[in-house]
Amino acid sequence: MCTRIFLVLFLLASVRAGAQRSYTALVNPFIGTGGHGHTYPGASLPFGAMQLSPDTRMADWDGSSGYHYSDSVIYGFSHTHLSGTGIPDYCDLLLMPFTGKVAWNNTEYRSPFRHSEEKATPGYYEVLLRKHGIRAQLTSALRSGLHRYTFPKGSTDASVLIDLIHRDEVLDAHIEKVSAHELRGYRRSKSWATDQQLYFYIRFDEPIAGFVINNGGKEQQGNAATGKALQAAVRLSAPGGVATCRVGISGVSMEGAKANLEAEIAGKSFESVRAAAERAWNEKLAKIDVRGGSRDQQVTFYTALYHAYLAPNVNQDVDGSYRGTDGKVHRAEGFVNHSVFSLWDTYRALHPLMTILEPQRTNDWINTFLAQYKQGGMLPVWELAGNETFCMIGYHSASVIADAWQKGIRGFDAKLALEAMRSYAESDRFGLRHYRGAGYLPNDLEHESVSKTLEYAYDDWCIAQFAKMQGDSTTYKTYLQRAQHYKNLFDPSTGFFRGKVGASWYHPFDPAEINNFFTEGNAWQYSLAVPHDIEGLKQLHGLTGFGRHLDRLFSTSSVTTGREQPDVTGLIGQYAQGNEPSHHMAYLYNYVGFPFRTQQLVHRICTDFYTNAPDGLIGNEDCGQMSAWYIFSALGFYPVCPGNGDYVLGTPLFDTAAIRLDGNKTFIVRAPRKDTSAYYVNHVQLNGRRSLRSWIPHRFVQEGGDLFFAMQAHPARFGVSGADRPRSAITEHLIRPVPFVYNETNKFRDSTRVQLGGLDSTGSWLIRVTYPPTKQGDYTRGNSPFPYTAPFTIDTSAFIDIYSMRSVVKDDVPAPYYSSRQAFHRLPDRRSITVQSAVHPMYTGGGPEALVDGITGSANWRSGDWQSYFAKDFEAVVDLQESRDIRFLGVHVLQEVSPWILYPKEVRFWVSDDGVNYREALQVANKIANTVEGAQEQELGSAVQLRARYVKVRAVSGGMLPAGHPSAGNPSHLFIDEVMVR
User: SS3 for 659?
Assistant: First the structure.
């Protein structure tokens, strides 16, 4: 009874307070604009199509949003921006006010500014441009925005530059003056989105007194121009010193941009549009009312909520028209079309958060997914402005769909959704064919193979759950077995998921190494990437091994090896809060009965890695994911496994939080405490009923009610017993993990014993030995498949095909066996090599001897077969052990310009009989340009007629990256995998 009375009083108080409280006053848009947060401070609406913000730098990683707090100049104000991405794009249609003579070069028209003369609140931005003393103010509606420029007193030449060249590559552009107050045009550009189309309509409140176009560096006086290098300048008749500019944008047409402007901001004052933006933001921010904590913590929280509402973005005109992923114009019927789906990031917390706060918007997003499937042939992976970028991995739209349906959000076609999910998962994209056949991905066939296998498995679990909810038992069974494919990359000898090449573990293994087996991480950071089957993962680690692994993860050295990965930040041991694969890990202690460790870690992360400062985000914001983690964690619960409908409890940051739900319901979280050290949970109460359970179901949140945390300053026996722990388990249709080849190398000189091992040897393993091609080009089968009972010996090169039963229980599935292949190579002779150049530590390709093993790799340079010599020539000496006739000299080299790999300019050879006195034998120049796109390989060499024992080789570096490359002027990699002496 007391709890009910409290709830009634609390709800009444929070409603009154919410109506009076200015939540926007608790938002600091500069959080994340420094460090590696990659956010922008400008004006937008919740999910707004326009993001009107200053640009302070050109495209680089920390300038992905167009703005970085460490900068001191502003180039102007553009109308589209990405929030927290790790790749630059957008920043379209730059406007810059000025006085005096027009300057077309951006280093001349940019202006210094000071942060002390800069202000930002949700929906509003202002700054003093010190170059000409102009105060710029910006505000935004959904698809349109206003600029207000206050020029110095006495100015008679108020002007605005329009730059359509700014930032990315322009494919086509157009601008025209259509009246004394109006301009219109479009800009097609290529960057991350390979064909972004943006149309605009600009209306000045003041008449245009002068108009000039700069087309390809030449000024022209006409009213219109089309080209790839367009700028324009307008001189305004603004006797009062104030100029107002209204801009509408569209992805469809110039007419659509005008219609958006007319519908949203035509005839409205700057103040009224700004006030409407503030109301829109207060309405969204009021969905969660938190009390308690420090002011800085509240600012951090509401800024996180603000960031969570910046993307995805509405991507349709006021009449519902939008440009689809097929490049054609469509009209949304029954939903609002959106863009900017950073799904590898946002499926983890942002989308689950929005199932609570924005269920109808979630329906809109899923209907957008299905529209993209119908129009572009696939669900989105990372869609941007109607372009599928294929950035990142997995098919995580499946997670968003399954999680929504499981929570009762069902305003979409379920039959079409299942068809769309299966269409992607049953395609041959990104190694999926081999993943289905072998039960895992080897890196010689698909790079980032470990990460892809693990994330495919989770997505398959989501498809299985969705199929089960639709009553499709056949699809459920198929995908539930696929969801266990993670087991096929678990190495019991190390306790990690490891990369395979063929059917063998890749050697050497360092769990701290960031390499091409993983996506933005290492073996530590992917070691727990099985949110859908924690019980299965615990079994792989053994009775107590899972808890020990967690302890090691958070306590081991934070030093990473291998590739420099700027995303891997916010390290506690090898846990990396700054990147998404780690985000669920701190909550896994609840699964082993130690939630106090979760409470310690979550409190530490919330306190240390999220602050009220420009560098207050520990990593990329990633379109709301980094902030959504904080929102959930500050509220005291987190969706470890989206799609299972459960939240794992942590430790609330605030004394009270009221989450306002649809249907006039409110979910209350209470965690009163005497001081900030009381972050341990003694017990919880669910609507007044005491509980030691360390998780809650979504329906408890959805129905509204009261979650009370009893807090204290020391660990308690909360969530310890098995019945009180969260559970994530696959318990039926179990698979037999595939065997692996024990051999550390697949190369031998005389003979080698082939040995298999595995997690499950109770099922029969069948072996087939296939020998290399005969002179006629046919493969010779040495035998029919035979049962593997013990190691066996081979003395010639061969392919070993391995077949293993899929299911623990025999069934009549169409493909009952997993099938994998391991190549073994007998070395042709005993030649050796001495490499005199230092190899790049990320690309060692099996060591020096791999350069004379007679094996050439494919154009897949991420496979681990290639060696890199960065910013240097490659030099080596081959010892044939005796003088021999030589008929060919060459090197097998690779080029892919985009990732900085260039062919050598030339290769030179010298030969010797004694290893001291050398004579020149061959010089061959590369004839393939360093501007050719795509991965390619060649034998750079020629036939010779000579005899020698020693061969010296020098491959001359390809030099600096060519003009036109995003990193032009930087040194290149020289990739080689064989010195060819025949």
Answer: strand
